[in-house]
Each structure stands twice: as structure tokens, then as C-alpha cells.
Specification:
globular, alpha/beta, eight-stranded parallel barrel, 42% helix, TIM Barrel
């Protein structure tokens, strides 16, 4: 059995792929990621399928709805449910988006947090409470967005760095989100990435995106990773090393497992090269 902490290259755990994965998990896949909101409390066949994999492979929990920067009350009941779920399945890493997604009700979108001192203090307090409930440090993912964060008093990289350090949490680095934002808002993705607190990176995402007719990039996780994003991932490994677990996200237009494995093997090759450079 593999260690309970994730290593190497991994894949988002999707119901559409379960039958194929049960028939045989490719050697390149070392762990899986899931959204705990979609699986915690699940019974019947879905629960049996999940146990089949969590008994054999490490899993990472990646949250979708905690709304860490949002104006509504922190959902502590959800956090306690996630903690029980993670304990049941031996999961040791939880990450969430540095964004907000709810007020009185869920908005089903990830919205940018204002880049202000007040927002830093508000979000840091909620992250600390989250970590207290879960009993672990969490990873924060740099999010994609399609309107500039309002009322900015600092850069996004400064905002992320302040929150990660003041909350004493970890960084979940998403290289596709950096690339999407860099193209939509005309900045250098490599310089942006270098300005992040990369020494705290615990987890990495890579994915594909969609280009609208007017040139706007949308972070869809619905297509293959493109060369500029691979280049950004390669650059990340030169700074953080190749040992950080990295997940290929694919949420729809899901191809067969063989095609997905080609991309996962590319992650593994870049990780190995990054490890050699770091050594």
C-alpha cells in the first residue's frame, strides 16, 4: 500500500471513471483527489466504490464551497463533517480556494476577494478557525477570476502571501489559474508565480481551459493542458522541486483513461526533471 500522504501525479476522482479505474489503475497515477462535499455522507454503491479506492490509494480533499473570504458565517458544520469524512478514509490533506462563493446561500461560483487590509484580516481569521476545527494546516489555492478584484490596496501576489503567512497555512499552487488570469489581465505569469510564497507549496493543480471567441480564457478543466501551462508547471518545479503532489483536473469532456494517462505521465516526467535539478 502507498503512504497515506499523496505523492507523485494524481487524478481527480470522478464517478465517470470509476469502472475504468476498477479495471486497473495506471502505474502513473499515485493518488486521487475528490471534493468532500460530493462524497461525505454518501451511502450504498458510491460509498462502497469510494472505500475500494481509499483502502488502496491516498486521497486529497479539495473543497469547493467553504467560501473562506465570503461575508456569510463560516460553515463550521460542514467542516466537522469533512473532518469525520477525512478521518474515516485516512485523508491528511485538505485544500480550498482563496475566494468566496456564498452569502446567505451558495452562489455556485468562485468570486475574487477584495485585495484590502480588511479582507486580509477577515480571511486570516476564518482560515485559522478552519484549521482549528480540522486539526491541520490547510492549503489555499490561487483562484481564477474574470473581473478585477475591487478596491485593491495591494497586488494579488502580496495578498496571497500575506494570508498564507499570517494564517500560517500552506499554498495550493494552480498553474492553469495563473496562466488564465495572466492572459485575461495581461501580466507575466512567471513573474507572478515567483512572487508567491512557493516555499509553502503543499499541492499543485494543472488543467486545461477554454478560449472564448473574443479571446477570454475560461478555467473549465474541460480540455487538454496546453504547452504554455506545461512550461509554467516546469518552471514551478525548478523552484519547489518535483516532490510536490500534482493533480490533473478534468471535470467534463472527459476522455478515456488512456488519454488522461498521457497527461499524467507528462506530469511525472516534469516532476522527475524538477527533482533532478533540485538534487
Amino acid at each position: 500500500m502507498l503512504p497515506r500522504h499523496a505523492q507523485g501525479a494524481g487524478l481527480g476522482f470522478r464517478r465517470e471513471l470509476i469502472a475504468a479505474l476498477k479495471a486497473g489503475v495506471p502505474d502513473a497515477i499515485r493518488f486521487f483527489e475528490l471534493a468532500p462535499e460530493n462524497w461525505a455522507g454518501m451511502g450504498g454503491r458510491s460509498a462502497r466504490d469510494l472505500h475500494h479506492f481509499t483502502e488502496r490509494y491516498p486521497f486529497v480533499c479539495h473543497g469547493l464551497s467553504l467560501s473562506l473570504g465570503g461575508p456569510g458565517r463560516l460553515d463550521e458544520a460542514l467542516l466537522r463533517r469533512i473532518k469525520r469524512f477525512m478521518t474515516e478514509h485516512g485523508m491528511t490533506l485538505y485544500t480550498e480556494h482563496l475566494s468566496w462563493s456564498a452569502d446567505d446561500h451558495h452562489l455556485y461560483d468562485l468570486l475574487p476577494i477584495p485585495l484590502t487590509e480588511q479582507a486580509v484580516k477577515w480571511t486570516v481569521e476564518r482560515i485559522r478557525r478552519t484549521q482549528d476545527i480540522l486539526g491541520m494546516r490547510i492549503g489555499l489555492e490561487n483562484a481564477s477570476y474574470y473581473v478585477a478584484p475591487p478596491g485593491a490596496e495591494m497586488t494579488e501576489a502580496e495578498f496571497i502571501t500575506r494570508i498564507v503567512r499570517e494564517a500560517d497555512c500552506l499554498l495550493h499552487l494552480d498553474v492553469n489559474n495563473i496562466y488564465v488570469n495572466s492572459q485575461n489581465f495581461a501580466f507575466d505569469p512567471f513573474a507572478f508565480m515567483a512572487a508567491l510564497p512557493l516555499e509553502r507549496t503543499c499541492y499543485v493543480h494543472v488543467a486545461g481551459h477554454y478560449v472564448e471567441a473574443d479571446g477570454l480564457l475560461i478555467d473549465t478543466h474541460g480540455s487538454e493542458v496546453i504547452d504554455p501551462v506545461w512550461s509554467l508547471l516546469e518552471a514551478a518545479y525548478t523552484q519547489i522541486g518535483g516532490n510536490v503532489p500534482t493533480c490533473l483536473e478534468r471535470d467534463f469532456n472527459i476522455p478515456d483513461l488512456a488519454r488522461l494517462t498521457v497527461e499524467i505521465e507528462q506530469i511525472a516526467r516534469l516532476q522527475a526533471a524538477g527533482h533532478r535539478k533540485a538534487a
